Amino acid sequence: MSWIYLLLAGLLEIGWAVGLKYTEGFTRFWPSAFTLASIAASIALLGLAARELPLGTAYAVWSGIGAVGTVALGIVLFGEPATAIRLACVGLIVAGILGLKLFA
User: How many domains does the chain have?
Assistant: First the structure.
């Protein structure tokens, strides 16, 4: 169950990271409310996952899911560059997440 909590926490991290763009400096109510709720839920789920998983593993996987998802949505939603080197670096993050899942 801890890995499910961690996956959900990572997905919520993507939500709040992307949500930051839509808050326009926390001047828009609904995007700000969504972002703050996502932050709280993400941290809560990370805490639940860390009860059974090693903290370093949980935090690294959580931040990795957030980083990869945020880069992907940045490319799709905001037209950020999808250069080969950028995608290769994202691939290294994915490899790290998989390595921690399989071997930690």
Answer: 1
Cβ-based neighbour number of residue 26 at 10 Å: 12
The label of the residue with tokens 């930690």 reads 104
Question: Residues with Cβ < 8 Å from 45, sequence gap 6 or more?
Answer: 5, 6, 8, 9, 12
Q: What's the domain range around 49?
A: 2-103
The reply to whether the predicted model has a pTM over 0.90 is yes
DSSP, collapsed to helix, strand or coil, labels residue 83 as coil
Residue 14 has pLDDT above 90, yes or no: yes
Q: How far is CA 84 from CA 59, 69, 81, 91, in A?
A: 27, 17, 9, 10
> By 3-state DSSP, what share of the chain in percent is helix, strand and coil, each rounded to 5?
85, 0, 15
pLDDT of residue 104: 72
